[in-house]
Amino acid sequence: MLDLGISKMALIGAVALIVIGPEKLPRVARTVGTLLGKAQRYVNDVKAEVNRSMELDELRKMKDTVEGAARDVEHSIQTQASDFDRQWSSPGEGVDAAVPAIGADPPAPIYKNPGKNWRLKRGTVPQWYKARNGVRTKALSGAARVARYRPQKFH
Questions:
Q1: Tell me: the pLDDT tens digits for 110-146?
Q2: Where on the phi/psi map is residue 91: left (φ > 0), alpha (ψ -120 to 50), or beta?
Q3: Three-state SS at 105
């Protein structure tokens, strides 16, 4: 922009003092300052808008590349699925081996999940043994313990 040093600013101020006069100079300086501030804010707003539009264009390009990659992945998955379906439905050497011949051994039984809850911690002592010997299997809260072991009043 302009190269304004202290000496040039002093020269401009002296000329403005002579031309405008001492009584109007403060009002003119305020007006010039206000106009310069508005111009600076306008330039900053334009810069920010240009930066936003550039970022928006970059994001659109990135979105297009990601969508293209997703379409390619989806297409490859669909082609592999259709190939698998074709191989599964068409008779081949693997299917004949799976069908038992007459008089051959029956196929192996299908695995059945035992239904155990692996998250549940189980002790080594069986529950029936604990019940027979009076071992406490459940924790009591403080209030329940007091209520259970409080001595009975005699009437």
A1: 887 777 777 777 777 888 888 888 887 778 888 888 8
A2: beta
A3: coil
pLDDT at 74 exceeding the cut of 90: yes
Q: Which two tokens stand for residue 7?
A: 């000496």
pLDDT reading at 103 higher than 70: no
* Gap between the Cα atoms of 137 and 126, Å rounded: 11
Q: Which of 50, 48, 68 is nearest to 60 (CA)?
A: 68
Helices (H) and strands (E) in the chain, counts: 5, 0
The tokens describing 119, both together, are 């998250």
d(CA 131, CA 129): 5
- For residue 15, what is the enclosing H or E element? helix 6-20
Q: Are 100 and 107 in contact (CB under 8 A)?
A: yes
- For 10-22, what is the mean pLDDT? 85
| DSSP for residue 120 | S
Q: What is the pTM of this model?
A: 0.38
Torsions phi, psi of 4, nearest 5? -105, 120
Encode 44-109 in three state secondary structure: HHHHHHHHHHHHHHHHHHHHHHHHHHHHHHHHHHHHHHHHHHHHHHCCCHHHHHHCCCCCCCCCCC
